[in-house]
Design brief:
- The protein is of the alpha+beta class and 397 residues long.
- It has 4 domains: 138 residues, Beta Polymerase, domain 2 (2-Layer Sandwich), CATH 3.30.460.10; 80 residues, cca-adding enzyme, domain 2, CATH 1.10.3090; 111 residues, no CATH class; 47 residues, no CATH class.
- Helices cover 54% and strands 11% of the residues.
- The chain contains 19 helices and 9 strands.
- The strands form 2 sheets. The chain has a 7-stranded mixed beta sheet.
- Helix 11 runs antiparallel to helix 12, helix 14 packs across helix 15 and helix 18 crosses helix 19.
């Protein structure tokens, strides 16, 4: 926030005398001694005035959220979100109709948590109208004002509460917040899957996902969004296993670790959460792979499984299976196979099958699958000549 780009932005906004302050996460994380990522700025100036002031200084402006008073400013390659002070006119539990204001207290009153209602001037003066600094120091995540009112405005804040408690909270969560979360938990089913998955993914990538999901379950907030998440002991173990395997936190992998579900339930969950096609495929593959490794962790099968599931699928399955306990030596052997894996290339293809007399079309694929299955079973050892001979025999039969 002391970088030249940030200073240039605030100087541009001060052009007509309207105050502008850093707000929210950048202030919170600066006070907490954590890395500052996104930088948000709040200002008394209206959106059209903000745009004019910034463009007058040659700053690029993108109208990313004009209805809510938000503009994106690009200064020397750095992205800033600039939002006019707001107060809520109406809310329906998911979105708000806002009016612009010059009242900083009104803007603070509509924010979710006290630790996010922090403002900082360019000269370092801190404005803390809701007691957020003390809450941050105490490891206390507390809603601004009454928790019920904040959740009634947007029930997604319920999931945000658990995410922020996991990251900034210490000890037991705020009892008023927990009581309100329990009351509003049934309303989570009214949220879009995209919004739920965005928050849930961040929760799962937190430092103690199992502990956070238990708190959510205590408030009745887990079953409405992930009804099959009952394997929380396995989720507890996956953080350390990921580190041992050199894997970063992955929301889909951790979700799969928490599930005790058949494939159909997994597919339904992916649809409900509006996962991308790639995420849904990864979730299904991780559940299948972990189930196979739990049932039979035979190290001799690692090569075949790596070829079939891919490195990502095998790593997901291994981490999940290992986190649940079992044959430590077999899992360690599988980890070594993963580290040394170089995917072999199947040495024949469709043109070879056609050259051997196969009719173009589905029959070619069937022949190749048959020969590839034999090649895999042989440990990928047969070379091109051996595969061609096998393919010729299969085509002639």
């Amino acid at each position: 926030m002391t970088a030249p780009a940030a200073r240039a932005l605030l100087a541009a906004l001060a052009g007509d005398g309207a105050a502008a302050r850093f707000v929210g996460g950048c202030v919170r994380d600066s006070l907490a001694g954590r890395p500052v990522r996104d930088i948000d700025v709040a200002t008394e100036a209206t959106p059209d005035r903000v745009a004019a002031l910034l463009r007058a200084r040659g700053i690029r402006v993108i109208p990313t959220g004009l209805a809510h008073g938000t503009l994106t400013a690009l200064v020397e390659g750095t992205v800033f979100e600039v939002t006019t002070l707001r107060r809520d006119i109406d809310t329906d539990g998911r979105r708000a109709v806002v009016a612009f204001t010059g009242d900083w207290l009104a803007d603070a009153a509509r924010r979710d948590f006290t630790i996010n209602a922090l403002y900082l001037d360019a000269d370092g003066t801190l404005y803390d109208p809701t007691g957020g600094r003390a809450d941050l120091a105490a490891g206390r995540v507390r809603f601004v004002g009454r928790a019920r009112e904040r959740l009634a405005e947007d029930v997604l804040r319920l999931l945000r509460f658990f995410r922020f408690h996991a990251r900034y909270g210490t000890g037991a969560p705020d009892p008023d917040a927990m009581a309100a979360c329990g009351e509003f938990a049934p309303r989570l089913t009214g949220l879009s899957g995209e919004r739920v998955w965005a928050e849930l993914g961040k929760i799962l990538c937190g430092p103690d996902p199992g502990g956070t999901l238990r708190l959510m379950d205590r408030a009745g907030a887990l079953a409405p969004i992930v009804p099959g998440a009952t394997a929380l002991a396995r989720l507890d173990g996956i953080v350390g296993i990921e580190a041992a395997l050199g894997l970063g936190a992955a929301a889909v992998r951790r979700l799969a670790a928490a599930l005790e579900a058949e494939d159909a339930d997994t597919a339904r969950l992916a649809r409900n959460l509006r996962m991308s096609r790639a995420e849904a495929a990864r979730l299904t593959r991780a559940v299948k792979a972990s189930g196979a490794l739990i049932a039979d962790p035979d190290p001799a099968a690692s090569g075949r499984r790596l070829y079939r599931w891919g490195e990502e699928g095998f790593a997901d399955g291994l981490a999940i299976a290992w986190a649940g306990g079992g044959d430590e030596a077999a899992f360690e052997s599988a980890a070594r196979a993963l580290a040394a894996w170089r995917r072999p290339v199947f040495p024949v293809g469709g043109r070879d099958a056609i050259a051997l007399g196969a009719a173009p079309g589905p029959a070619v694929g069937e022949l190749l699958r048959e020969v590839e299955a034999w090649w895999i079973a042989e440990g990928f050892a047969p070379d091109r000549d051996a595969c061609l001979a096998r393919l010729a025999a299969a085509a002639a039969s």
